[in-house]
Structure formats: structure tokens, C-alpha cells
Amino acid sequence: MPEVGGVVTEQPITRTWLVAAVYRPLRATTILLAGYFLLPIGHGNAWNAVGLVIGALMVTGFVLWEMWRIRGNSYPALVALEILTALVVLYIVVFSATYFLFSDYQPASFSEELTRLDALYYCLTIFTTTGFGTIAAVSEGARIAVSLQMVSSLILLGFGINFLASLVTDKIKHTHIGG
User: Fold this and answer.
1) For residue 70, how many other CB atoms are within 10 A of its CB?
2) C-beta atoms surrounding 164 within 10 Å
């Protein structure tokens, strides 16, 4: 690693690396959303078990791949930001699938039956704390799931803020001023 004024710095970020850093989370988002919309899950579907196993394998593979990528990377902070982005998408997909399955197996769980798109929309309104009120959790199970999402959203937000604060603190520590 190069040294500037006695301070070890990361290698400069190239344009190619930056494009890849943007592309990878977009690719992960596309794969996760495609899986959400295309995997065979739902009431009366003979392929439910297969869809759930494929989904679980996709999630496990995704997590293992991201953990492998961060090891020994020249830009661990940027890789961590990529992973955080992908985990937020994964989080949203998992809760959306949960709401869809609640609605599919027990249609009275929400104020209206949810399609996959409706479940994604509802999940995003909870995650962003927008809460338009167009869809509401009615059953006890659905309310528990929504409550878990609310609490875990706060935890995820806390991790995100902590991560950004760590990046800023680390940058301040490793920046040579007045060299």
C-alpha cells in the first residue's frame, strides 16, 4: 500500500472498480427480485417445497459468496457497503415473501389479499416508515410479522448509521492533514 506523509493509504479506486462496485449490488438486487417474483411458492402450488428450498439455497449461497468476497479485498469498506446494500434488498424480499405467504394461506391476514407486488409495496411502506394505510395487518400472525419488521428495521438502520460513522472515523484517522 502506498504511503503518504507516513500514513498508509488504500490504493486509488479505479473507474473500472467503481463501475463494478455499482454493478454488483444491482445484479444482486435483480437476482433477488427475480427469485421473489418467479420462484414457485404459494397456496395450492405443488412446487412449494422446491421453491422454498431453491430460495433458501439462493440466500445461503448469496451470504457465503459475500462473506468470501470481503476476505482480503483491497477495498473492504466499499465491499461492505455493497454487502449492506444487498442485505437490505434481501431483507425486503424475505419480508415481502412472508407477507405474500400470509395473505395467500390466510387471505384475512391483511385488509386485502396481497399479490407479490402488493406484498413488496406493503413491505417498503413499513421499511421506509411511510405507512400510507392502504393495506393493514389484520390477523395476529401478520401483526407479529409486521412488528418484527419494524423492530428489525430500526436495528438495520442502526447498523447502517454505525457503518457510515465507522467509515468517516476511519477516513479521518488515516487522512494526513497539512502534509
Assistant:
1) 13
2) 12
Joined grid coordinates for residue 24: 454488483
Coil vs helix vs strand at 137: strand
- 3 DSSP β-pair partners: 8
β partners of residue 4: 7
10 secondary structure, DSSP code: P
Q: Which of 142, 151, 146, 116 is nearest to 39 (CA)?
A: 116
pLDDT of residue 56: 80
> How many CA atoms does the CB half-sphere of 179 hold within 13 Å?
9
List of domains in the chain: 12-174 (1.10.287.70)
C-alpha cell at 29: 438486487
Taking the C-alpha atoms of residue 100 and residue 130, their distance in angstroms, rounded to an integer, is: 19
Q: Which residues pair with 137 in a beta bridge?
A: 110
Residue in this structure with the C-alpha cell 457465503, named with its chain if needed: 64
DSSP 8: E
β-strand partners of 7: 4
Question: Taking the model in full, what pTM does it have?
Answer: 0.77
84-107 confidence digits (pLDDT tens): 888 888 899 999 999 999 999 999
Contact 79, 73 (CB under 8 A): yes
Q: What are 2's three cell numbers? A: 502506498
Whether the Cβ atoms of residue 90 and residue 6 lie closer than 8 Å to each other: no
